[in-house]
TrEMBL record:
<dbReference type="InterPro" id="IPR036397">
    <property type="entry name" value="RNaseH_sf"/>
</dbReference>
<dbReference type="GO" id="GO:0003676">
    <property type="term" value="F:nucleic acid binding"/>
</dbReference>
<dbReference type="InterPro" id="IPR012337">
    <property type="entry name" value="RNaseH-like_sf"/>
</dbReference>
<feature type="domain" description="DEAD/DEAH-box helicase">
    <location>
        <begin position="227"/>
        <end position="301"/>
    </location>
</feature>
<dbReference type="Pfam" id="PF00270">
    <property type="entry name" value="DEAD"/>
</dbReference>
<dbReference type="InterPro" id="IPR011545">
    <property type="entry name" value="DEAD/DEAH_box_helicase_dom"/>
</dbReference>
<dbReference type="Pfam" id="PF24626">
    <property type="entry name" value="SH3_Tf2-1"/>
</dbReference>
<dbReference type="GO" id="GO:0005524">
    <property type="term" value="F:ATP binding"/>
</dbReference>
<feature type="domain" description="Tf2-1-like SH3-like">
    <location>
        <begin position="142"/>
        <end position="203"/>
    </location>
</feature>
<dbReference type="InterPro" id="IPR056924">
    <property type="entry name" value="SH3_Tf2-1"/>
</dbReference>
<protein>
    <submittedName>
        <fullName>Uncharacterized protein</fullName>
    </submittedName>
</protein>
<dbReference type="InterPro" id="IPR027417">
    <property type="entry name" value="P-loop_NTPase"/>
</dbReference>
């Protein structure tokens, strides 16, 4: 999880199965096509989830919502263009129904029921197969989590290899469903505040700490990039490194149970460094170079005593 990739958290959530045609449809537009003799340059696509029937309706890029609604009812619902108001009214309700018509309707209802049962069974099998590779992870309002920032969450032109991959801890302020949560993001993070559970990692520390957790939540560190650079340098130079920043994972050992720091390069925040030194896991006797990154932000975040 150090590189900010998605987890296998979250079970597959089924969509409701429609019981008859046109009960649930999806719509989209294919635009930018060569113009036809009638001036159409786009295709209005309607897909029925029940029957998987697809309707391709020629239209124009400038077609407004009213015209789109008219095309939907004329080309999809009624399948023919009505010539007048009488074509849209239902047939009169008679006390006697023709036997052939009744048989046709009953047969159609049986087909619809068979299709519904088949879709329900297929969805259940798909969910069973999908859930084998996932686990159930749920959060409650008030919990703190690490949030993974994927490339798609950055505004156009702002993403680069040095961008933060993971921020936190951030608070869960709303549980939309078992797979979607609304987070209280810092003001400088310009992205949607709703995250899928696969992009959330439980935070196991104390949310009230004023050490590195607080700094990370407001000013994300580039730990992944730093570690990657040091790893490549160490491959050819023999430089050893260690990260003294708790990432909130379930496998992180307490500082008191970790071995003393023997690496040549140590990456950490003032609060964490202080804890390591207090636990006698880090000695400042052999420190030759000390670098403070974004020290002004640390002062803003009442870290002056740790610095």
């Amino acid at each position: 999880m150090s590189k900010g990739t998605a987890t296998n958290a979250g079970l597959y959530m089924l969509l409701s199965v429609p019981a008859q045609p046109l009960e649930d449809v999806s719509m989209d537009f294919v635009m930018g096509l060569p113009q036809t003799q009638r001036g159409n340059d786009s295709i209005y696509v309607v897909v029925d989830r029940f029957s998987n029937m697809v309707h391709f309706i020629p239209c124009k890029k400038t077609t407004d919502a009213i015209r789109v609604a008219q095309q939907y009812f004329c080309e999809v619902v009624y399948a023919v263009i009505p010539k007048g108001p009488l074509d849209l009214i239902p047939l009169p309700n008679r006390s006697k129904v023709h036997s052939k018509a009744a048989n046709f309707v009953n047969g159609l209802q049986e087909i619809h029921q068979a299709v519904y049962d088949h879709l329900t069974e297929a969805n259940a099998k798909y969910k069973q197969a999908a859930d084998k590779k996932h686990c159930s992870v749920e959060f409650e309002v008030g919990d703190f989590v690490w949030a993974i920032l994927t490339k798609e969450r950055y505004p156009a032109g702002e993403y680069n290899k040095l961008s933060a991959r993971k921020i936190g801890p951030v608070e869960v302020i709303e549980k939309i469903n078992s797979n979607a949560y609304r987070l209280k993001l810092p003001s400088h993070i310009r992205t949607a505040d709703v995250f899928n559970v696969k992009h959330l990692i439980p935070y196991t520390g104390d949310s009230s700490d004023e050490d590195d957790s607080r700094v990370n939540s407001l000013h994300p560190w580039e730990n992944d990039v730093n570690m990657e650079v040091l790893r490549k340098m160490g491959k050819y130079t023999g430089i050893t490194y260690q990260v003294a920043i708790p990432m909130g994972g379930s496998n992180d050992l307490p500082i008191t149970k970790q071995p003393p720091v023997a690496a040549q390069v140590l990456i950490g925040t003032p609060g964490t460094m202080k804890k390591w030194m207090s636990a006698k896991k880090l000695s400042a006797v052999y420190i030759k170079i000390l670098v403070f990154d974004e020290a002004d932000h640390m002062l803003d975040e009442v870290m002056v005593f740790d610095i």
